[in-house]
Amino acid sequence: MSDTTQTHGGGAVAEADARTPAQIEADIVGRRERLAQTLDEIGVRVHPKTIVGDAKAKAVSTVDHTLGRAYVAVNRAVSQVRSQFVTEEGEPRLERIVPAALLVAGVVGLVVARSRRDGE
To answer: pTM, whole model, 2 decimals?
Structure first.
């Protein structure tokens, strides 16, 4: 900037302002309107309802994100287990199903026998 120019409110203005009073007044009105709009925006941002609404939205977003990740993890685990008992063509793998079924039946039998013994 030259020595004859100063900065006022974001715009360069010559020391000997060449604007008319009407232009200066219009500039002041424009700045007041922008300031009022900025103050309104700040008022909305700091209003308790806005703060609560933002907090709720963030909480919902976090829960949705967490549930989404959990769903993906469970889906991946189910797919991995399923792949152990079913071929890619959808055929059951009896060599894996029969031992697993026998194991489950044995555990259920032990639980039933123990509960009967404890009930006496």
So the answer is: 0.45
